[in-house]
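for the writeup, i need someone to sanity check this before i put it in the appendix. the sequnce is what the collaborator sent (i think, or maybe the updated version? ugh). structure was predicted straight from it, no edits. if anything looks off just tell me and ill rerun, i have time this weekend
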Amino acid sequence: MQKEMKKETRGGYKLYALYAKICCILFLCTAIIGGAFFVFPLSNKNVSATSTPITDSTATVSGGDLWKDGHIDSAILEKIIKQVTNDNNVNESSLKNYAANKITADIMHNSTAGGKSAAKEVTFKFGGEYWQAVYLSAADNNFDANGKACGTDNLINGSPTKKGDAILTIMLAYNTETVQWNKWAENNFDRNYPSTMYSTSYIRNVVLNVNDSCGYSESSTATKLTNLGQNESNRFAKFTMSTIGGEENKLINYIAKPAQMKWQEVESTPNYTTLPYYYFNEAYGTPTKGAWHTPSNANKLVNKQNYNDWANDLIWIPSLGETGHGNDTNGVWKIPYNNRANSVVTWTRTGEYNSASNLTKLGGSNVPANEKLSYRPALHLNLSAAFNSISADDVNTEYNGQKQTIDTLVSWYDPAVMAVTEVDGNFTDVGDHTVKVTLTDADYVFIGED
């Protein structure tokens, strides 16, 4: 496939990076990466994402949406990765190393790479919404939720997420809309669907528009779940639906699920805060450290058939154990207190440790499930999949024992306007090899392909 360049007026062009990702066994494989990345001017205004709406001028990653015209925007992606890792020279391999060692929100808060100012949370636009980066970790799980009573397990099968992928957990940066967590509240663990069971909640199934055919519990006496189906006009349809308007929605290919994150399978509030008990809806598996306040009640809830269905969701409400509790920087994500607050009282998915009627709001204290509060959902953005997706060509060459060079592998390489800036591999042995090609003349750009 012939690569093209386009010459345009300085300062007025779009930039698309050119990638090729190769996998083979019998051939010497080469991945060619082209990209001329530049930084958009950033605002010096120090605005908290949690008290004021984020805009392109106040986001730390400005210049538009990460999801642009049906593909990942390479310039935006590079700035996000630099700001999250605090490394201006990060590459695919080092990104995965950072993810394996984890980076929490308090560390990101103080990063200064990628044009970011210190003491600001990393914020950017994705899918039309502004998000706050809260945690970088590696995909390392393949949990199989036991619900499935309504027949949906499609999100875990065929997922592009692989073990070791760099996963950036992001939380909606700001929201003032208020909704009920559930349509009713009753402190009764014997109900078919207790009012504080997240998987059968109204906020999960209707507000977040999750890809699930079970539904929510309309009342305390419900014997079956109410399924309204997914809504293409829902605010979060882009993050939950495989097709919209009859067209494939490729954005969801860059979202991992809680089922692929081990830390969400075993998380418990006592691991990260001073609170002593397990809380409901935190772990989708068996939590570690601590104990149930009243095991007899806990067993009734956590053993419900649908309890951990949310493990397969693409978007979800964060827990108290993830966001942190009180005025300290704690929780899995270690979000600084001022950055996890919201201008409106906000839901978590965490059920009070010994109640079937109360949920815990962001920051602590309990609220009945049928109250109306705001919400800030989260999702797992697969940075590795995003990095690898900006691809245009597969370059395969048969092993011959000789060192390969870029100008012999592709016909479009032009040393007059291009330079090889990164090399991973010796380009001699059988295996995967990667090279990054950067344009040296700012009047030229690569024409990308979806």
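The radius of gyration is 23 Å. The CA atoms of residues 3 and 432 lie 21 Å apart.
thx in advance!!
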